[in-house]
Known about the structure:
Elements lengths: L1 H13 L1 H8 L3 H8 L7 H11 L7 E4 L3 E4 H9 L7 H12 L8
Antiparallel strand pairs: 1-2
Helix pairs in contact: 1-2
Amino acid sequence: MLWxxxxxxxxxxxxxxxxxxxxxxxxxxxxxxxxxxxxxxxDNIRTKVTAAFGITLAQTVVCPVLGEIGTExxxxxxxxxxxxxxxxxxxxxxxxRACPNNCxxx
Length: 106
C-alpha cells in the first residue's frame, strides 16, 4: 500500500507526534496502523493520510505488460512472487525487475 509507505516515511522524517497531530489520530492508532494491526476501517486512515500530505493515489504509470495502471496496482504487481503457471505473471515478473517504476530494493 503506497499510502502506508508514505505514512511510514513521514513518521521516520517528521516524527510520530507531528504525524498524529496532522492526521488527528492518537499515537495508539498510529502504532496499530504502522504495525498493520489496526482493527478499524483503514479507508478512513488512508483518506486522512492522502488529504493531510497531499497525496494523489489515482496516479497512473504505463506498464509494459498491462498498459496504463494505477500506482497501487503497479506496486502490488512488483511484490508478487514468480509464478510460471500464468503467462501474464511470467511477463510481469520479467518486466517488473527492469522497469523504471520498480521501487523494490531502491
